[in-house]
Design goal:
about 325 residues; alpha/beta; five-stranded parallel β-sheet; 13 helices
């Protein structure tokens, strides 16, 4: 009986030991910095939500395997340098940035802490990396390289509005990448057969005058170039577009969910989740200089039929067929 009891005790100890080991807290909790144009808290920042979801799929749980130090500029680009400096003082193992201004601020703040960028237009032209294949330095991540997409956005607008001749382009000159997108839009407009009317807005206080300028210019549609400040105030932009009876094209889906007519661009959630892959590799010892910068491979067209009906627009069946998602 004693031998049997000893055998049972030994068996139970072997079964329980792996469970106990699995239940042990991780030996090291990683500190990750996140710098975004949104904010000011991470709770409603889809960039952070998608990134953390990507980390969870790789086995990292916030509070157990990682601590996220978040700084959000809330659409105010001038805040980035101070916010980046704050993150560097916290000594995170990696800093993840959203958008070109955030990446540039992080680059200026540190040359040693690895930086994973997402939502950056052209990291080579911006001076963030030496090349896509060999980024060099402490920065890598995901590039939009999206100026050529402006042409496709204008094509879709022309498909929906064949008679449109003048399209307003709303852009934020405080964002260094949008200047290149404006130039690309000028070239694409000639090919599509429309005239562009550029309208600047550095902050939400300029929205009313911007739409007044569009009305005065007799714009028949609006192209909104990607910018964190515009995203932060997307509902206000959508309301103004509806009030001024302007069909809109955006670069990401959330604008359409807020009531915009259409969006076409790289899959937002896909590129943000991919940031987690970079962070995982860096935490495991890979240097950013050895990780090529990825370009988008998945693009999505989203159309809001309810908005189209409110504007009295009929979306061509061929375009509905091309759409990745149609909101009704």
């Amino acid at each position: 009986m004693t031998a049997l009891m000893l055998l049972v005790a030994l068996t139970l100890s072997l079964l329980v030991a792996p469970l106990a080991a699995h239940a042990q807290p991780p030996s090291h909790v990683h500190r990750i910095g996140a710098l975004s144009g949104l904010g000011p808290t991470p709770g409603r920042d889809p960039f952070v939500e998608a990134f953390l979801e990507g980390m969870r799929t790789l086995g990292y749980v916030e509070g157990q395997h990682l601590v996220l130090e978040y700084r959000g500029a809330a659409g105010h680009h001038e805040r980035f340098p101070a916010l980046a400096a704050e993150l560097v003082q916290l000594k995170p193992e990696v800093i993840v940035t959203q958008g070109t201004p955030a990446a540039l601020a992080a680059k200026d703040a540190t040359t040693t802490i690895p930086i994973v960028m997402v939502g950056v237009g052209d990291p080579v032209e911006s001076g963030l990396v030496a090349s896509l294949a060999r980024p060099g330095g402490n920065i890598t991540g995901r590039s939009l390289l999206a100026p050529e997409l402006v042409g496709k956005q204008l094509e879709f607008l022309k498909d929906v509005l064949p008679s449109v001749s003048r399209v307003a382009v709303l852009w934020n000159p405080a964002n260094p990448f949008t200047a290149r997108m404006v130039r690309a839009a000028d070239v694409a407009a000639q090919a599509v057969g429309v005239q562009l009317h550029r309208v600047e807005a550095r902050g939400p206080d300029a929205f009313d005058s911007a739409f007044a300028a569009m009305t005065s210019a007799h714009a028949g549609a609006l192209l909104v170039l990607g910018d964190a400040m515009f995203f932060q105030h997307r509902r206000r932009l959508v309301e103004l577009a509806a009030t001024n009876h302007l069909p809109t094209m955006h670069n990401i889906r959330p604008f359409v969910e807020a009531g915009g007519l259409m969006a076409y661009g790289p899959s937002t959630l896909d590129r943000r989740r991919r940031a987690a892959v970079y962070v995982d590799k860096i935490l495991k010892g890979t240097k950013p200089a050895d990780l090529p910068v990825e370009q988008p491979t998945r693009f999505e067209l989203v159309i809001n039929l309810k908005t189209a009906e409110a504007l009295g627009i009929t979306i061509p069946p061929t375009l509905l067929f091309q759409a990745d998602e149609v909101l009704r």
